[in-house]
Amino acid sequence: MEKIILTGDRPTGRLHVGHYVGSLRRRVELQNSGEYSKIFIMIADAQALTDNAENPEKVRQNIIEVALDYLSAGLDPQKSTILIQSQIPELCELSFYYMNLVTVSRLQRNPTVKSEIQMRNFEASIPVGFFTYPISQAADITAFKATTVPVGEDQMPMLEQTREIVHKFNSVYGDTLVEPNILLPDNKACMRLPGTDGMAKMSKSLGNCIYLSDPEDEVKKKVMSMYTDPEHLQVSDPGHLEGNTVFTYLDAFSKDDMFAEYCPDYSCLDEMKEHYQRGGLGDVKVKKFLNNVLQETLAPIRASRAEWEKDIPGVYEILKKGSEEAEKVAAETLSDVKNAMKINYFEDKALITEQSERFSK
Ligand code: TRP
In terms of CB atoms within 10 Å, which end of the chain has fewer, N or C? Predict the structure, then answer.
């Protein structure tokens, strides 16, 4: 079977290094692996509006930011189709039919929805659109017949919900939709990169993100003030790795050959960790190494962004072309869905014959 990727992000802010190790870096690898016949990357503006209805300008401004982050991180419009969700009306139609296959209580049990409702203090006043976004996400995934959805761990419940909708649809209306598989990051540190303050999640409101587009000195400042081990007061004290943000970032970003270049006292991360735990290795030295590691990773992305920023109309053109291409694919799926549901009255010759016979009896 053809292997097809679909994944995406809500355009509510610039992408940060958590997005990068959690998903973006992998997408670029998958794109360049040549194993996938099609790759769709969606800027999910309609989903972003489900909890930003009163803030459309934020979404509008961030579409181009996310597109620039994608392109500068290495997504190549020749190989990947980058699209804007709201420009594919077929997705709404699919969602509308899928809504009949999902119960309210099932949505209420979706762990991602549950925690997002809490985070946003929506308890008493959940917008219907927000509540049903897992269904619209199932439409996103199935519209492109995606077999593979590379996302972070937090999206697991969305994939489960999608698979349930696919099963239900196929069992009621006949085999039509493709069942997608989730592709999680392969390294634990990449699953959920903490904020620079050690908090579980990077978020703009907490001010604990390192953005892909941060300038060099900004990255350095953020690294040098990162949360480490509060019990590691003197260099000679034994240090702890558990919950030590600097080491979590090194797990996610460092490669052995970076030691030779920036910290030749060690040949690999395990050696550095061992010294830290034994005592005698100071946080500043580790942070300086992490800064070099991050700068090496981010410098090419930053340089590429500067080039793309010179041609903003060209970037919008890429999004327009991508959305047009994507709409063709979604329209085919919608047509399959309507055929399966037998709501294709005017193309269904058998129906017209059958009804003619019924009324001529
Ligand atoms: N829910 C995803 C997020 O919050 C964005 C998204 C929308 C998505 N549609 C998708 C991800 C389809 C994967 C597949 O980041």
Answer: C
Longest dimension (CA), the chain: 97
Q: Pick out the chain residues at pLDDT < 50.
A: none
What pLDDT sits at residue 122?
A: 76
Q: Which atom of ligand 1 is nearest to the CA of 146?
A: 14
Q: Is 294 in the pocket of ligand 1 (CB under 6 A)?
A: no
Which residues have a Cβ under 8 Å from the Cβ of 306 and sit 6 or more positions away?
A: none
Q: DSSP letters of 237-276?
A: S----TT-HHHHHHHHH--HHHHHHH-TT-SSHHHHHHHH
9 close to ligand 1 (CB < 6 Angstrom): yes
* Per-residue pLDDT, 203: 81
Q: How many CB atoms lie within 10 A of CB 118?
A: 10
Question: What is the per-residue pLDDT for 69?
Answer: 97
Pocket test for ligand 1, best of 151, 178, 203 (most atoms within 8 A of CB): 151
pLDDT tens, position by position, 175-226:
999 999 999 988 777 778 899 999 878 887 788 999 999 999 999 999 999 9
| Whole-angstrom distance, CA of residue 15 vs CA of residue 211 | 6
In the chain, domain spans = 4-192+312-353, 216-308
The answer to whether the CB of 42 is under 6 A from ligand 1 is yes
Choose which residue among 5, 155, 178, 202 to substitute to test ligand 1 binding: the one with the highest number of ligand atoms within 8 A of its C-beta.
155
User: Are 73 and 33 spatial neighbours (Cβ–Cβ below 8 Å)?
Assistant: no
16 forms bridges with which residues in the sheet? 211
pLDDT at 192: 81
Task: Tell me if 269 CB under 6 Å of ligand 1.
Answer: no
Pick the CATH number of 216-308 from 1.10.240.10, 3.50.30.50, 3.20.19.10, 3.30.70.3280: 1.10.240.10
CATH class, 4-192+312-353 region: alpha beta
pLDDT tens-digit readout, 36-58: 999 999 999 999 999 999 999 99
What is the model's pTM?
0.94
Atom 14 in ligand 1: which residue has the minimum CA distance?
Answer: 7
**Sheet of 4-9: strands edge to edge?**
81-84, 38-43, 4-9, 148-150, 181-183
